[in-house]
Amino acid sequence: MIEFDGVTKRFGSRDVLRGVSLRVERGQVLGLIGPNGAGKTTLIKLLLRLSHATGGDIRVNGQSIAGTDSYRASIGYMPQIARFPDNLTGADLFTMLRDLRASNVAMDRGLIDRLQLGDQMDKPLRVLSGGTRQKINALLALQFSPTLLVLDEPTAGLDPLSSATLKDEILARRSEGATVLITSHIMSELEELCDDVAFLLDGVARFVGPIGALRSITSQGSLERAIASLMIREVA
């Protein structure tokens, strides 16, 4: 479970997050939605302790993350653009992560096959396409049985088959009890994957709740139209 309680973040005189409160339960997928600059990436960085909140609290499984990094062992993180050394292979990256975690688990060969990475894992990243790199990024995030998944635009650059495979994997992990926080600009994807959504605008959570409730209050039939309607209301 992930809880953001009145979280604020200021860079200089600019307030990027202003009292954001939301909760992602165990076995739930929550989608973070908002225009560029709304605060989605900042919220993720605070959760991962890549940055520190100005105010409020963030809790994972009921415990504040302030002053500790141990909880991060339970997180599988897929950034939108992974920055790995180009000379390393996918197999090298897995070995490096396994050593950092002091783990002896083997790579998930089944997922490697489903992502069609069998002949790509031993090639340097510099010779791989952007889509193949993204598949390796997804594969690494899903290793080591994470109970928390943080996925930033996970299907960006993936072909339809790989995208479907990854979405199936996300839903399978949710059914096993994983907590999932996901950002995407593809509203149909969020409708397919998410239980709840959180709409951020100007650093404020303007809506947090079930997609059906958002459709209802905006009188719109799709998430995309509902978000567009909400943006018009908030800007007006």
Assign the structural class, choosing from mainly alpha, mainly beta, alpha/beta, alpha+beta, or little secondary structure: alpha/beta
What is the arithmetic mean of pLDDT?
Answer: 92
How many DSSP H or I helices? 8
Radius of gyration from CA coordinates:
18 Å
User: What's the order of the H and E elements?
Assistant: EEEHEEEHHHEHEHEEHH
- Spatial separation of the terminal alpha carbons: 35 Å
Give the low-pLDDT segments: none
Q: If you had to describe this structure to a student in words, what would you say it looks like?
A:
By secondary structure, the protein is an alpha/beta fold. The protein is 34% helix and 26% strand. It is built from eight helices and ten strands. The strands form two sheets. The protein has a six-stranded mixed β-sheet with strand order 6-7-8-3-9-10, with helices on both faces. Strand 4 and strand 5 form a beta hairpin. Helix 7 crosses helix 8. The chain is globular and about 50 Å long. The two termini are 35 Å apart. 36% of the residues are buried.
